[in-house]
Design a protein that fits this description.
single chain; globular; 3-stranded antiparallel sheet; 13 helices; alpha/beta
Length: 484
């Protein structure tokens, strides 16, 4: 029998094994069921390190140290080391090297129950009342004469009315599509019914570490002297004995081009930089290192810090105005036929802004609108679908940069509209599901990818933001048994 025939016979088994390693658990006509945790843990989070018994004057392998960021005038140095280097101890002997592997904390994806479990019937009743009220509002609008002021329903502002109308448009799509995907997840065993033991043990997970305030560091970095544009534009973490000043972290793109993860120390906090990834830690006023590289990207994913009342009250993170978001230099960063994807909250004001103002200002043509549906490990919505307050879904607006001279994309499928991305969300705020494997059929192979306002890193992508290392903090990971 030929080798080709043998491969054909083994294909189903091989494909099944491959699918298990990927973040796409199931792909059906309505959309995808994603395993966010699997996507993170398939990344090669292996750090080459030396035992502590090594000479103290040698820095730990695969690390970049910034011990005193606040004293910008000092001569503190970065030291980037190659993982194959074996420093010597006091006796002149080579230090023993070991490989430390990390996995992401699985409890951060342990969502066994909906966020709202009580008074669901009451909420449904409220929703029915609102639907009746909404129908009344529509009737009033339809019979109102031209030029008359639009009548408003008592108890609802215009934003709430718009949100209710939009929800009614996509409700059937969300319900029918997710039902197919969730049923498939239950059949395969990826999703599983809630047990009594899980129900009793479902308590919030808290991590007791004080993370480095990355956004404040970006503010401090603005007081650094500007670099000569002719100097190096990137900082390579894989070079031997390369020393640079502390300002390089904030003014240059940091790259890990090796096959292994690097651990960097920043203000006493350790962060993992996965292989084949790069990042720029800065805010929107300091994006010039991205532009100075004169590199363009085939995919740009944007997760803007949208302004809303809860953000104002909690002071959780700084937000940007619509005008500031429009100033992001997408036309300079986008390659011909670049696919631009923007995460949008359920506020219709933001959705209209992206469609009617933001994308037109960037010469981006809208081609699809997708929806991310958040579920528990047992397949329930994290919020009731008809909840009047929070919905279990968020939106993504997909568009392509309009280029008159751009050649049509080959070997890529047309992007379908109204697809669902269904996944168990991370308990960490704003930890979005990965899009790399979902998008692979719609972009050219080995395309350059950029994520703006990122809070984590991934291989093959450049990430930018003032909290770009936030979810790379080592305390979000568990070290496995190391090996020499």
């Amino acid at each position: 029998m030929s080798i080709i025939a043998l491969r054909s016979l083994n294909c189903p088994q091989r494909c099944h094994k491959k699918r298990k390693r990927m973040s796409v658990v199931h792909q059906l006509s309505p959309g995808w069921l994603l395993d966010h945790l699997s996507f993170i843990n398939k990344i090669n989070y292996q750090v080459h390190q030396h035992h502590e018994s090594c000479c103290s004057e040698n820095e730990p392998t695969a690390s970049v140290h910034l011990d005193s960021v606040s004293s910008f005038g000092s001569s503190t140095k970065f030291i980037a080391s190659d993982p194959t280097t074996k420093p010597k101890n006091d006796g002149g002997e080579n230090c023993e090297m070991f490989i430390q592997k990390y996995i992401f904390r699985s409890e951060l994806f342990d969502i066994t129950k909906p966020y709202i479990t009580s008074a669901i019937h009451k909420e449904c009743q409220q929703n029915n009342e609102k639907e009746d009220l909404m129908n009344g509002v529509k009737k009033e609008i339809s019979i109102s004469t031209l030029g008359k002021k639009r009548k408003r329903c008592v108890g609802f502002n215009q934003g709430e009315l718009d949100a209710m109308e939009y929800h009614e448009k996509i409700r059937g799509l969300i319900l029918d599509g997710s039902s197919q995907i969730i049923q498939e997840g239950l059949k395969s065993g990826f999703l599983h019914p809630l047990s009594e033991k899980q129900d009793k043990c479902n308590e919030p997970i808290t991590l007791s570490f004080d993370t480095c305030n990355l956004s404040e560091l970006c503010e401090m970095a603005k007081h650094l002297p500007s670099l000569n544009e002719m100097e190096l534009l990137t900082l390579q973490l894989m070079e031997n004995d390369m020393s640079v000043t502390e300002q390089d972290l904030f003014s240059r793109i940091v790259e890990n081009n090796s096959r292994f993860t690097k651990m960097i120390t920043l203000m006493g906090q350790k962060y993992l930089v996965p292989p084949k990834s790069s990042f720029l830690l800065s805010d929107i006023s300091c994006m010039h290192p991205l532009l100075n590289c004169r590199k363009t990207y085939d995919v740009i994913v944007i997760d803007p810090p949208w302004q809303n009342k809860s953000v104002k009250r909690s002071n959780r993170y700084s937000y940007l105005s619509p005008m500031q978001i429009k100033q992001i230099p997408i036309p300079k960063l986008a390659a011909p036929n670049c696919l631009v994807i923007t995460w949008v909250t359920n506020r219709q004001k933001h959705l209209r802004f992206v469609k009617e103002e933001l994308y037109p200002s960037w010469s981006v043509e809208i081609i699809a609108e997708w929806h991310w549906l958040k579920i528990t490990n047992s397949g329930e919505f994290v919020f009731p679908l008809d909840s009047p307050h929070k919905k279990p879904y968020e939106g993504l607006i997909l568009g392509r940069v309009k280029e008159k001279t751009a050649l049509p994309l080959r070997n890529t499928l047309p992007i379908p509209d109204h697809k669902l991305i269904v996944s168990v969300p991370c308990t960490l705020h704003s930890h979005k599901p990965p899009l790399a494997e979902v998008l692979k059929d719609y972009i050219k192979p080995d395309g350059d990818c950029l994520e703006l306002f990122a809070r984590n890193l991934q291989p093959g992508w450049t990430s930018w933001g003032n909290e770009v290392l936030k979810f790379q903090h080592v305390d979000y990971f568990i070290p496995l048994e190391s090996r020499s």
